[in-house]
Amino acid sequence: MTDVQYISLPHWPSAYQASGASATLKLLNEDFIVTELPLQLPSGAGEHVWVDVEKNGANTAFVAQQLAAAAGVEERDVGYAGLKDRYAITRQWFSVYLPKGETPDLTQLQHPEFKVLSQSRHVKKLRPGDLQGNRFRIVLRDVSGDRGAVEANLNAIASQGVPNYFGAQRFGFEGGNVEQGRAMLAREIRVRNPKKKGIYLSAVRSFVFNEVLALRIRQGLWGKTLPGDVMNETGRPTGPLWGRGRVSTSDEAQALENGVAERHAVLCDGMEHAGLEQERRALVASPADLSWEWPQADQLVLMFSLPAGNYATAVLNEILRTTEPDRHAENEPVAVD
Hints:
The chain is of the alpha+beta class. It folds into 2 domains: 1-33 and 138-337, 2-Layer Sandwich (Pseudouridine synthase); 40-129, TruD, catalytic domain (Pseudouridine synthase), CATH 3.30.2350. It contains 7 helices and 14 strands. The strands form 3 sheets. Strands 1, 2, 3, 4, 5, 6, 7, 12, 13 and 14 form a 10-stranded mixed β-sheet that branches. Strands 8-11 form a two-stranded antiparallel ribbon. The chain is globular and about 60 Å long. The chain starts with 21 loop residues before the first strand and ends in a 14-residue tail after the last strand.
């Protein structure tokens, strides 16, 4: 089909039976604590000043702007490994390019929504993806439903992982970036802004991956391999991040992926013409060091780590249904890691 419209996101299936439970997520910023796990720590010497920042109610791009202003540099001279949630308490590294002159003491920067905990020099700029992953501590409030069913799903996740879906934030407000991407690839609209073009390409690529994963789950293939699957270094099957070149799967796995590509031909053909190369992504996300506790009968606290590019929402969606306070800002940069 080449005339598919992407007005809203589909309901992608879960791997486990729904617990029927529900809870409130991010009632308070301190209910969602994220600590970035860096690939490396600053060496103490180099042209870049790395700063360790804790933010509370600020988005990553805003903090980068404030650091640039305080250091007297352009915004492009500030780097970070990934965008973090605004309505949370998050800790992450930023780099500021300051090759010459006196080094400003950025720990003296005062702002109600963030603080610089420390700074040190390093030889390289932080770029998107320069992280091992993230550690989460999530408080779910007003939990209602079958506690036994919630515990059963938590135990299943601990042993088998969760579908490695891209989170809803990848697709923009109400999934609108997928339709914008389709229109861009179909040449119905022209997108001149490189950053916006990249966001739209990322959205459509992630959408096709989620469609492949969803089809496998619908066909009863969760936790199973297909003949022709491409396995990752942990021995688990992968799915396509679409682009130019032949898919690396074969046999039944290739047939399934090509079937999804035919349904979304405008997206897949467009991504090939846009110059994206074929890549692979794990179909299973495995939360590390998953633990949980019930401080109160209606309160559940989760703690776990995920590799870079995996989404905490993929874990939450397999446990219970969550709702958040309505505080959406349409122009808010989306958290992508």
